[in-house]
Design brief:
single chain; Cytochrome Bc1 Complex, Chain D, domain 2; three-stranded antiparallel beta sheet; two-stranded antiparallel sheet; 41% helix
């Protein structure tokens, strides 16, 4: 299988195929969190030393485009269950905390395939979003937004300033959405 860099066209599909082929553990949230420090930038997309998507916040508080887009996508698709700004609700956990314990690839697997935790008198079910382009095409954006919230790099609410969307990000988005 040809694995691609996170954030590149086809990366989500490759990750889904890998997740399906090696299986997925519901104990994934015990994994150590990867570093959030920026190691490299490529066309407005930031990556850590492990080549995992990460956020970038300028000294004046300007967030990178994907963090801003993640805020928008999270509040469009995720906050209904997980609460505003990743803070959690009585119905679902605080994703700003959960994402700090998850490996990037486990995060992708859970969002794509769903998750069910049953026991101790409770039943928590997260539906699979693998067929939802409004989630999967922006999964790296949601991930970096939640990581920025989980490290308190950005406060609650809409980021006041953000970088512009690059042409490469726009092209990747259009290709994923089929436009």
């Amino acid at each position: 299988m040809n694995m691609r860099k996170p954030g590149s066209p086809g990366a989500v599909l490759a990750i889904l195929m890998l997740t399906a082929s090696v299986g997925w553990s519901q104990q994934a949230d015990t994994a150590a969190a990867p570093d959030t420090a920026v190691a490299r930038e490529e066309d407005g997309r930031y990556f850590n030393a492990e080549d995992i998507p990460t956020f970038h916040i300028a000294e004046d508080g300007t967030v990178d485009w994907r963090t801003y887009s993640g805020y928008r996508r999270y509040h469009s698709e995720c906050h209904v269950c997980h609460g505003p700004d990743g803070e959690g609700s009585s119905y679902a956990p605080a994703l700003k905390n959960s994402v700090m314990r998850l490996d990037y690839y486990d995060f992708v697997g859970i969002v794509a395939g769903g998750r069910q935790n049953v026991g101790g008198g409770h039943e928590n079910v997260m539906p699979a979003f693998g067929d939802n382009a409004n989630v999967m095409c922006y999964l790296d954006d949601i991930y970096v937004y939640l990581r920025a919230r989980g490290t308190d790099a950005i406060p609650r609410g809409r980021p006041a300033k953000h970088d512009d969307k690059t042409d490469v990000i726009r092209e990747d988005e259009n290709a994923c959405m089929g436009t």
